[in-house]
């Protein structure tokens, strides 16, 4: 079914000039961009967004990193969009990501892995993350012509 998924180019991806490359990959794949926000994540938003990782050894570094510069937050829509995006992103660890995936092609390490996408295995993740970053009236409704 057509569904919406949350995707974000992290500060390393923005700073390395990878926003366009990443958007192109999703557009070429046939996914539809319905929301985009170039923004600075606050400390509070970082804690909410990554709440499930609170208490883990990498949590403080993760919050520091994700607030270290602007991110490109996006909502993409399409058939099975969450799984499609996960496939195109690669694994969390770039070293384990196949060439041709965003992290396999551009990721440097577990922290600087260029991109975030909602967890496919986590049922409510998409809705939760979209709600956290976007108001409903910031999401656009239009037809993609393929
Ligand atoms: P992301 O998909 O944004 O979700 C949580 C992030 O935490 C993950 O990508 C990684 O960038 C980061 N992360 C996960 N595990 C580790 C780890 N062991 N060390 C450092 N960062 C991690």
UniProtKB/TrEMBL annotation:
Keywords: ATP-binding, Cytoplasm, Kinase, Magnesium, Metal-binding, Nucleotide metabolism, Nucleotide-binding, Phosphoprotein, Transferase
Compartments in which it is found: Cytoplasm
Active site: 116
Cofactor names: Mg(2+)
Keyword Aminoacyl-tRNA synthetase appears in the UniProt entry: no
Keyword Membrane: no
SMART domains assigned: NDK
Gene Ontology terms, MF aspect: ATP binding; metal ion binding; nucleoside diphosphate kinase activity
SUPFAM superfamilies for the chain: Nucleoside diphosphate kinase, NDK (SSF54919)
Primary site of residence: cytoplasm
Residues at which ATP binds: 10, 58, 86, 92, 103, 113
Entry-linked InterPro entries: NDK-like_dom, NDK-like_dom_sf, Nucleoside_diP_kinase
UniProt domain Nucleoside diphosphate kinase-like: residue ranges: 2-141
Stretches of the chain forming a coiled coil according to its record: none
Any one GO BP annotation for this protein: UTP biosynthetic process
One annotated Gene Ontology cellular component of this protein: cytoplasm
EC number: 2.7.4.6
Catalyses which reaction(s): a ribonucleoside 5'-diphosphate + ATP = a ribonucleoside 5'-triphosphate + ADP; a 2'-deoxyribonucleoside 5'-diphosphate + ATP = a 2'-deoxyribonucleoside 5'-triphosphate + ADP
Purpose: Major role in the synthesis of nucleoside triphosphates other than ATP. The ATP gamma phosphate is transferred to the NDP beta phosphate via a ping-pong mechanism, using a phosphorylated active-site intermediate.
HAMAP family: NDP_kinase (MF_00451)
Family, as annotated: Belongs to the NDK family.
Descriptive protein name: Nucleoside diphosphate kinase
């Amino acid at each position: 079914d057509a569904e919406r998924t949350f995707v974000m180019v992290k500060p390393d991806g923005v700073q390395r000039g990878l926003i366009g490359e990443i958007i192109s990959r999703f557009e070429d794949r046939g996914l539809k961009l319905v929301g985009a926000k170039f923004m600075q994540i606050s400390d509070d938003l970082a804690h909410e967004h990554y709440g499930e990782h609170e208490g883990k050894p990498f949590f403080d570094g993760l919050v520091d990193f994700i607030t270290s510069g602007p991110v490109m937050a996006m909502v993409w829509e399409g058939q099975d969009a969450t799984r499609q995006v996960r496939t195109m992103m690669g694994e969390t660890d770039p070293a384990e990501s196949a060439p041709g995936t965003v992290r396999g092609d551009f990721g440097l390490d577990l922290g600087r892995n260029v991109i975030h996408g909602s967890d496919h295995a986590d049922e409510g993740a998409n809705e939760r993350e979209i709600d956290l970053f976007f108001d409903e009236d910031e999401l656009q409704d239009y037809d993609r012509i393929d």
